[in-house]
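[User] Could I get a sequence and C-alpha cells?

[Assistant]
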Amino acid sequence: MTKIYSPEELNSFSRETLVAVILSMQDQLARLNTNMERLIEQIASANNHRYGRSSEKLDVIAGQLELELIFNEAEALTETLYVVEPAEEDVIQVTRRKKKGKREADLKDLPVEIIPHTLPEEKLQEIFGAVGWKQLPDEVYKRVRVQPAGLHS
C-alpha cells in the first residue's frame, strides 16, 4: 500500500520527486489492471464451467458432413418425421389378500411357554388400596424364540 499524499505535501515536492511518484503510480496502476483482467477471466471461466453446456454437443455447421446421418441413418431420419408410438396397454395388477389364520397354523407345532405377570392380591391392596385396582383382560403375545446353533453336549 502506498502513502496517500495531501495537496500541501504535493505542492512542497520538487519536480523530480513528483515525476518519481507519478511513475510509481503508473506502475501500480498497470499491475492492478493486469490483476483485474486475470480475475475477470477466472470468473468468466468459472461461470462457463458452472452454467455452461453440460454436454459436448455442438451445433451443426453449415456445409459440414453430419456423421450422425451416416452412421445412424434410421434414427436420424425418424427424428425428423412424425412418429406414432403404440398406445400403452393398461396392466391390471391383481392384489391377493392374505389368508387369515396362516400364522397360527404355522406356529401350532411349536412348543408354547406361558409367562404370567401377576401380583398377589395382598401386594395390590397394599400399593393401590382396596378399590384402587382392577383386573384387566389377559393379552396374548406369540413370539418365536430363536436359539442360535451351537455345540450341544
